[in-house]
């Protein structure tokens, strides 16, 4: 469903098969463009989560405790949560490619400062700037992918673009943890700068411009809350991400207390590889089974938390839990963004902006809540907190069966 202006910063001709303004020309997935978007997602997701893999080394070098260093995830999330909606409104008329290029350059600058800083407040300021760049990127990436594909392939287009997130978790964070041990955590952030600059060139070369909204087509972002189905999706987003972040941000100290401090990279690798399998299956089935997949994801993450909470002395159980966690979490970004877009209809962009805001507010809350749990109850409380939070998630998904998380759709493969 298109609600955008047909005027682009770089107009295409009527015979251009990549023209996103001509749905009749879009007969398949534009893989080079979608893979560029997936790499942008990789940069965004890895910048967000990289501290989880190098938290002890960062805290030691900057002279602060692990819970204080964990707030580098919190302040990043606050940067996104506080700015996503106003920046989305302010840049609604910008071409999507122009806006994404701006975000990628913001990541390059913020990661460079993070790598070179020896001052905790400066590091936190750089992380806040990275969060602002993330707000710009996350608010447009899913919608961008949708608009590059024909209607029957839009769910799969989002899944392709979102592969960058599990790749960041499966390869990026473990690689960052390894580099942190061998060369220093700051090397991983400098590498992120290089990747951000590389994907900037790729986007400029391979991704067609998609216009923003003309002034007369813009509507207040909060109006999307009145659309049936949007509020349940946003509620599930906030609580599910809060549960995930409580554990993921502090996975290194959690494993250290279990005597597995040296296996953080391996556990994150198991989690990430399972996430890839989760997003692959989600992309194949999301068109018809959005509801069932969301329920399954919730139950898998809950099962992983239960295993981590009960099997305190078994490394094999930790790896099994990591696999369950990854299988459940891998498809969650695609599921929730697709649900928000479907429920939002004409207000899909506004629904996505609010989803990004709540996603990162939940990340900020997870960083703070996890830090409090770490200081007061210890890492053993993390799995039980996750389980407690996932109970209302499951309840809302099961109840919101009409507009937010509808049942099976007949026909089509998505």
Q: Could you walk me through the main structural features you see in this protein, from its secondary elements to its overall organization?
A:
It is a single chain. This protein starts with 30 loop residues before the first helix and ends in a 15-residue tail after the last helix. The chain is globular and about 55 Å long. The model is unreliable at 1-26 (pLDDT under 50). With 414 residues, it is mostly helical. It is built from 14 helices and no strands.
Notable characteristics:
414 residues, 73% helix, globular
SSE ordering: HHHHHHHHHHHHHH
Task: Specify the helix fraction band.
Answer: over 70%
N-C termini distance: 16 Å
Derived structural class: mainly alpha
Biggest sheet record: none
Radius of gyration, in angstroms, nearest whole number: 20 Å
Shape: globular
Report the strand count: 0
Number of helices: 14
Q: Report the sheet-strand fraction.
A: under 5%
What is the averaged pLDDT score? 79
Identify low-pLDDT runs: 1-26
Give a summary of the structure in a few sentences.
This protein has 414 residues and is mostly helical. It is built from 14 helices and no strands. The longest helix is centred in the C-terminal third of the chain and has 47 residues, at 264-310.
Give the SSE layout:
Blueprint: H1 31-62, H2 66-90, H3 96-116, H4 120-147, H5 154-162, H6 164-182, H7 185-206, H8 230-248, H9 251-257, H10 264-310, H11 315-329, H12 332-344, H13 348-376, H14 382-399
């Amino acid at each position: 469903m298109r609600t955008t202006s047909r005027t682009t910063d770089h107009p295409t001709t009527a015979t251009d098969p990549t023209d996103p303004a001509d749905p009749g020309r879009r007969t398949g997935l534009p893989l080079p463009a979608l893979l560029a978007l997936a790499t942008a997602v990789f940069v965004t997701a890895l910048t967000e989560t990289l501290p989880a893999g190098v938290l002890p080394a960062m805290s030691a070098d900057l002279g602060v405790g692990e819970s204080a260093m964990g707030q580098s995830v919190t302040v990043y999330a606050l940067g996104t949560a506080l700015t996503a909606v106003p920046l989305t409104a302010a840049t609604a008329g910008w071409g999507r490619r122009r806006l994404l290029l701006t975000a990628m350059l913001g990541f390059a600058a913020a990661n460079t400062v993070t790598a070179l800083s020896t001052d905790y407040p400066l590091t936190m300021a750089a992380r806040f700037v990275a969060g602002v760049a993330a707000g710009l990127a996350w608010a447009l990436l899913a919608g961008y992918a949708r608009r590059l594909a024909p209607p029957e392939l839009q769910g799969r287009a989002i899944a392709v673009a979102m592969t960058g997130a599990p790749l960041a978790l499966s390869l990026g964070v473990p690689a960052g943890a390894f580099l942190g041990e061998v060369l220093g955590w700051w090397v991983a952030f400098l590498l992120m700068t290089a990747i951000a600059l590389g994907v900037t060139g790729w986007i400029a070369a391979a991704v067609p411009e998609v216009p923003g909204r003309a002034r007369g087509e813009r509507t207040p972002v909060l109006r999307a809350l009145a659309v049936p189905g949007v509020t349940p999706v946003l509620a599930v987003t906030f609580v599910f991400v809060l549960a995930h972040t409580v554990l993921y941000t502090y996975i290194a100290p959690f494993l250290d207390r279990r005597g597995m401090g040296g296996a953080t990279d391996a556990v994150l690798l198991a989690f990430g590889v399972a996430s890839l399998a989760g997003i692959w299956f989600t992309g194949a089935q999301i068109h018809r089974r959005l509801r069932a997949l969301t329920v399954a994801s919730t139950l898998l993450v809950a099962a992983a938390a239960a295993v981590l909470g009960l099997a305190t002395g078994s490394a094999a159980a930790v790896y099994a839990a990591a696999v369950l966690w990854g299988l459940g979490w891998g498809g969650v970004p695609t599921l929730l963004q697709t649900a928000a877009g479907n429920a939002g209809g004409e207000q899909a962009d506004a629904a996505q902006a609010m989803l990004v805001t709540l996603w990162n507010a939940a990340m900020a809350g997870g960083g703070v809540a996890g830090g409090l749990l770490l200081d007061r109850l210890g890492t053993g409380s993390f799995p039980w907190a996750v389980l407690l939070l996932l109970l209302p998630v499951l309840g809302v998904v099961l109840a919101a069966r009409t507009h937010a998380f509808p049942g099976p759709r007949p026909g089509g493969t998505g």
